[in-house]
Amino acid sequence: MIHHCGVENVFSWHLWLAATGKFCQSGGFVLRHKREGMMSQQPVVAVLGLGAMGHAFAANLLKKGFTVRGWNRTRAKGEDLLDAGITLADSAAQAVEDADVVIAMLADGDTTRQALNDASTALKQGATICQMGTIGVAATDQLIAEFKSTRPDVVFIDAPVSGTKAPAENAQILVMASGDQSNAQAAEQVFAAIGKGTQWLGEAGASSRMKLVVNSWLIGLMQSLAESTRLAEEFGFSTDDLWKVLDGGPLAAPYAKMKLGMIASGDFTPQMHLVWALKDAKLALDAAGDSKLPALENIVDVWQQAVDAGYGEQDLAAVYQYLKR
To answer: In 3-state terms, what secondary structure has residue 48?
Structure first.
């Protein structure tokens, strides 16, 4: 069932992924209802990378009746899904055999390229690859070119996501997809199972570019929030005081409320690790070309210092703790 409504802003969606479960289509933006019944023919899915995000994708696919095969360099990360029905493979190539859709959700471009190139010859004819990690523009474009040359039968979908660990676990992410949508029916079944919406952005590679835009904005918001909170404390205001003022006007952002909650509690259990956010900021700068991004450059310097000081494995909101030292 399709409802037509106004275009939602991708940045607002990134902040409050759980706000709506309705399906709307306008200007290429799509939000889907949860399916009330399983598809009569679900694709077999291989998930390469069972870290926080890949694990969540695999778990949601299993809950919805998909046949799922998983591979991770550290096998133990997927063993808790064995009872749910996952089949763990010893290699990426073994995992993708007979898979209709392959999800790659790995740490960086080098790891992703190695895993997908190792698996290339094992892919079934006409399989779909969904590259869903944040690996940057150069690595994405290289993968697209490599598969176009060596496996032109494969449908390559560039599909990073907007959302972190908790939204992924609750199937609340937004998939930013680009590539041949006309041949992406199997991929769209998978996206509907792991997220609340899909936005198609054009030719393969466009989504990885938008992902860097969204993450750059998010990273800037986090740094500004950390500094504003320090200033508020200097003036004798609490995080609760700050949120009440923000909430009373047009500057309220649920994402800011969540991060202020982390700061108030001192619990920086990672939704997005500071070290990975720093990686994304560097990828954005690498891809920026002639664009001048002095604020992002400064954030990279500060966050590198925070990572070097031991905050890298905490949530990116821990940059507040670094500033407070």
So the answer is: strand
Cβ within 8 Å of residue 256, ≥6 positions away: 221, 225, 243, 246
Strand order in the sheet with 101-104: 87-88, 68-71, 45-48, 101-104, 128-131, 155-158
Residue listed under structure tokens 């938008």: 210
- Which backbone phi and psi does 242 adopt, to 5 degrees? -60, -45
Going by C-alpha positions, the residue among 131, 162, 132, 134 that lies closest to residue 145 is 131
pLDDT tens readout for residues 53-103 = 999 999 999 999 999 999 999 999 999 999 999 999 999 999 999 999 999
Q: Which token pair is 84?
A: 């749910």
Q: Which positions ≥6 away from 217 have C-beta within 8 Å?
A: 11
Beta bridge partners of 87: 69
Taking each helix axis as running N to C, give the angle between helix 274-287 and helix 206-234, from 0 to 180 degrees, rounded to the nearest 10: 120
In the structure encoding, which two tokens stand for residue 221, read together?
């918001």
b or e along 289-312 (b: 16 or more beta carbons within 10 Å of the residue's beta carbon)? eeeeeeebeebbebbeebbeeebb
257 near 185, Cβ under 8 Å? no
